Structures
1.
Amino acid sequence: MKFFKSITVFEYVLWGGGIAAIVLSFFLCGNSDYLNLIGSVWGCTTLILLAKGNVVGQIMSLLFSAYYGYVSFTMRYYGEMITYLCMTAPIALCAIVGWLKHPFRGKRTEVAVATPKFHTYLAVFLFSVPVTVTFYFVLKALGTNNLAWSTVSVLTSFVAVSLSLLRSPYYAAAYAVNDVALIILWSLAAAGDREYLALVVCFSVFLFEDVYGFVNWLRMRRRQNSP
């Protein structure tokens, strides 16, 4: 109950508007797989929770990873499938433990925002290079559709989930860049099947939520660091 009271009017509008756009696009695009609809709404809700720094968002992201892995497999976007099932989900599990260990002033509904050192950010970006190169050749061998954009998605996903583990506000900025890559990726898929337009709308909603998440985490950091 306290959590729902903490959600602002703007957040309710962002959340409700996102769900409305997802549901509307689902039916307008002639989709019939309600698992996709449930997964998209689940993801929309997950990002609002993450934007609030709530560890429940990390828990929900584990289930979203399973859903998105399935959708990616059906479209032969093996990069997305492998990324979410073998990278995003395990790191999210580690993030759950990390967030639970670092609540802000003992509040489980808000994680303590960290300010990693420059060398930590540098390590994340440097480590992302061999990870991305490795994934590129694996995905190429698997015959992944739209290989270039799938590889970009791997890179941005790895950076985003790593920064989330570090409790850095920049995790949301990285996910916003990842959303752009996914919008392009699923737009290419929608060129052959209009049902995938619903996923373009879904990740457009995610983009707005991740941008808000970045802004809100910066606000949270200022508030938490104030005397």
2.
Amino acid sequence: MEIVNKRISEDEFSRLRTEVLAQWPTGKDVDLKEAVEYHKSMPKSRNFSQKLIDAKRDGRTLVQPRAGVPVIEEHIKLMQYLEEHGEADLLPSTIDSYTRQNRYEEAENGIKESIRLNRAMLNGFPAVNHGVKNCRRVIESVNVPMQVRHGTPDARLLTEITYAGGFTSYEGGGISYNLPYCKNIPMERTIRDWQYVDRLTGLYEEMGVSINREPYGPLTGTLVPPCISHAAAIIEALLAAEQGVKNITVGYGQCGNLVQDIAAIRSLLELCDEYLAKYGYGDVIVTTVLHQWMGGFPADEAKAFGVISSGSLIAALSKATKVIVKTPHEAVGIPTMEANAQGLRCTKQVVNMLSDQTFNDSRLEEEKNIIKLETRAIIDKCFELGNGDIAVGVCRGVEAGVLDVPFAPCRFNAGKMLPCRDNDGAVRILEMGNLPFSQELRDFHKAKIEERAVYEKRKASFQMVIDDVYAIGKGRLVGRPKY
């Protein structure tokens, strides 16, 4: 499949759009001009982009949950509860797994079964099946902006329906919703399908409606080195900007080391602004999101709140524009709405307490510089591989292992790079694979991991990685042998 980082032409987009809207009957209810007028009639309090801009200006960190259920009335009830009792600043509609795989008929059966049995038989909100009118019922039931969160490789129809339905933020991208989620879908295909999503977002922007776009930051979880997730986010931001997107939130998943996590959020904003300006997209507004701990959780709820609080602290001290909140039920399954609200209130308490505080440490700038050197090495090499075209370059870069996501299920991902923690709990790289790092950076990682190995009186090995994966469930960050 031929791919190029160039704005989709009007004729090509129109042709593709006819095909996309025909994928499921609810597509016929999408009318772009009418949808734009609907957005313009909405109160500003429901616009995601504007709320992020205001928060960034004021130095506030907004709180947002993950949540979604299949039956429209129950989904509305859940959203209203999280707004009122969870004090959520922003709300999601997390999409079900069938919709993520474009299996709309099975999603329809799931809705019917959920109604018949009076319990959720899908793990999210099937927005495509519910259609434009029901999406608007959800939007109009609350007073805060709403975002679509999902994990869909081909999200084009979902985008059309939810944008027309009034959602003003949309998560995902051709890298971040492929490598961590898919096994057999080529990068070229997802990059192309997400160019459609971004072009549609750009069309709304050109017609006077700003819709926020958010690459998925954590990728495969809590052992992803910042440079890997940063490179993916920034490349997706560049691809989105080419299609006309003007409001982008780049994200990072909490890894656990205070200095590294704060350095990561701050460097992510600086790097994204740097690359957007360098390639001619200086008018794009960039904000940041911190995803609370994406790994294993303690089953004990009190201990789970400790993990949630640690992520809240990182978000507040790094001055992330928003934080995606976890719940005390992470270890046992889908949370109740009460538990979801508790996680939100816990987070809000911490970010409010720390809102006027700043964090500076002698190691912070050093860590930021390391992250920036690593991230630039990856992105610049992708540009080189693509002969200046980042869409081509990232596809070739993934194939070559230049951008290598650890533990990713995608068979097109090289899977040669292997991370583990250093003696302070920061994520370093045990096996470099084909990452395009200088010898100085390679020596830095080797020395950091060797320092841990000496402390633990064992050789640096894959066992360290395994121990790190299970450490949080045992109440630690670093997987020491004695624990």
3.
Amino acid sequence: MDLVPAARTLLVSFDRLITSRAALVQAISSIDFSFRSTRQGNTFEIPVAYDGEDLNDVADLLGWSVEDLVRRHTEATYTVAFTGFAPGFAYMTSDDTTLDVPRRKNPRVRIPAGSVALGGKFSGIYPTDSPGGWQILGHTPLKMWDMSRSRAALLEPGDRVYFRDMAKGSTASPPPMQFQSATPPSMSNTCGGLLVTRADRPALFQDLGRPGRAGQGISESGALDRTALVEANLCVGNPRGSAAIEITYGGFAFKTDRPVTLAVTGAPAPATIRSPEGKIVGAPLGQPFALDTGDELTLEFPPEGTRSYLAIRGGFAVDRLLGSAATDTLAKVGPAPIVKGDVLMPANQPVSAVDPARPQPMKLPKEGDTVTLDVAFGPRTDWFTEKSLFTFLAQEWQVTAESNRVGVRLAGAEPLERAVTSELLSEGTLLGAIQVPHNGQPVLFLADHPLTGGYPVIGSIARHHLDLAGQIPIGGKIRFNTVSAFDQFIRDTDR
């Protein structure tokens, strides 16, 4: 289904209904690796302002002055080895082997787009604002990913790169950073529609995502609670994967200029309908309901869960990019976030009958609740001590306020201790992977996760608990329950 090349590994995702692990192992083992090829790409000069937050720390780690660090970074020749993490992120090796520094113990929640950084033996440039653990040396105004170009990624494997110090005259015009959309967003007030009157936090269009795009550095993305998205669409007679609005922690309202049929699923945000005359009635959860012209629907903060899904009969008129209307917050791909003042247009697509008899929604966790998530160990379980494996399963992990669609950041009383302290060369990561930075506090990857990462993955959430993981609120607690022992065979042969 997908391949994620990395420094020394290849992540192979496959459909168990079509093939088996044994068949894949046999096919991969029979490949003749005696024939090799090398791609000779283009040469780029990247202007850099060496003003990064970690410039002094990196110089100290290497035993150099800042001037020496900048000089050696600009004198080296870099080759793009592979791409990953996010669209346009290139992992570059250097002919100066001394440019080798560990990743940060505490990854940053946000690294600005254009940041030039070092991580282990690699140099890279962050294409968008994103979390990350690399050491920041400076920034470049060049845009690493732009879908309006014939080649969206500026750098591809085999390309040669030279960094140039902007303090010595290297310049470039900084392009704007924005969500990549095929055409202007289908949210304007020229034709009327559903006027967004409140959006405490930006809401997002989501569907079932865009699988099979890892070769372009694009993760699947899509709704965090896929079951809730499908249920919302089935309620109003839409195809299962139609785009709906993902609303986090409520605080969302809109007024309609026409009769519409809607459904809200997922987190049970209290929903009320206000008529033009001021009459207020409640709206049901998990069932279709109607609004008349002039009615306003308001969703408040949900008492449990985090994300509600709003579907409209006939779907929303929203742009699709690479086969999906999902908004990927890490890659900045898809429709722009929905904010107050936007007008949402119904698409009036073909539909089937509404279904008012959908199953009762499951209870979702509240702040302070403890949720048990099933996990399968691997692929880097052996990078941790036996004590850490016990701690991982025995103690509660609290969901912190730094969590988002990229990942759930966890905090435990006792951090996990690694048995292997060396730097891990970046490897492919999956939805549900639990990565452990040097600080020992895990990060659970969600739908907008990076495709590759340089911290070891101790295990991955079982597929049947992925929707639940996306609904655990800040302040909730997680216990991990192992359902599969660490499989050395998987680590050594399947990856």
4.
Amino acid sequence: MRRVVFNQKGGVGKSTITCNLAAISAHEGKRTLVIDLDPQGNSTHYLLGVAGTDLETTLADFFDQTLNFKLNPKDTTEFIIESPYPGLHVMPSHPDLEDLQGKLESRYKIYKLRDALDELADDYDLIYIDTPPALNFFTRSALIAANGCLIPFDCDDFSRRAIYSLLENVAEIKSDHNRQLEVEGIVVNQFQPRASLPQKVVQELIAEGLPVLAPYLSSSVKIKESHEQSRPMIHLDSRHKLSQEYLQLHDTLARKYGA
């Protein structure tokens, strides 16, 4: 299963959702890989901590290799780093991804990530792909390489109005490049049940027949502690309410999609 977490809006929790679901998958014994395509590297730092700031090999090196043909290229596995958590590996980001984007796009390397993940098909049960907050080369590469898509939603009216544009973008990628791609659901993040606006906008999505997943992920200061310590919630405090919500969401996805 290859699952991309996608939203063109920043600050909606893409990296947090990616890393926490991946950490649960690995914790439950699944061979799990996180691919961090965002040059900001939030997933890389979340899972690797300070070790993620000084790496010899990153995704920038992987994509650079696709631009510079070599007779003996590195194997895809050489761009993968072990995290501190058993069964959880990372293809780490690097700021140089930003500079590579134009070159990769002009030379039509859009299928290289998909090809690389095909090589890893027997090595991992689950692959989670974190994307930049834009529909750019890296996000399109991820949507072409994945077969499932999660859309984080942060309960404001701007996000509510942007949902249909996001769904249209996914549908276009599916039609043009990747027939296997399916929207698994909308993940409601930073939910405040006592506030009227979050309840209103989520109910509007449900009323329109959009695939809103349950449970909703609560707003909690605990997640900031999780980020600061580079410890996903399942490892920081497995009994916390938010940890339990992530576990339930993970179980929902496993029951619906088998992964």
